[in-house]
Amino acid sequence: MTRDRKVCQPCLAIIRLLWNFPVNELADLGVDCATAPQRTAAICRAAMRFCLLRGWSPLPEVPLPNGRRADVLALRPDGSFAILEVKSGALDFLSDGKWQEYREYCDRFYFAVDLDFPQALLPEDAGLLVAAEGEAALLRDATAHALAPARRRALLQRYAMLAAQRLAMLSDPGLHASVRAALRSE
């Protein structure tokens, strides 16, 4: 790896906090803030493709009742829900402990990462998808933990409403601005 990469100040602060080692060793960790958004988008696309090829119905960026946002919430053919948490690298995983709060809203929880991700960091009871070249492979299935019927019903309603709203906004691009304006006036 090259040592001429630029690292943003927040990332430096997190790294210094998490690890107590010289900053000149950052390149050995593969830290490259400039490519993280592109990596995240590529992993997310591969994860959604994985879902669709298995008959799951994935919905990206889903707000959950606890105020968190799932990267991908997928409704499976059996009526169960899976959450796929996309991680672009070790720093992304180590600096974000919110994923533990997502388990309350799914029957199965997965991490979606790329080939460069240090998989030993991930908990064993979470499923593992590894993305490469637009595809994702299931390396480990997630431990099942069934949702309570009332929570499943509420989550299904939230999922359906969000999916229908997004579909309506795709068919009428001007609708999005109108809806936002109407919601602000309430």
TrEMBL record:
InterPro entries: MmcB-like. It comes from the Bacteria. This is MmcB family DNA repair protein. It comes from Siccirubricoccus deserti.
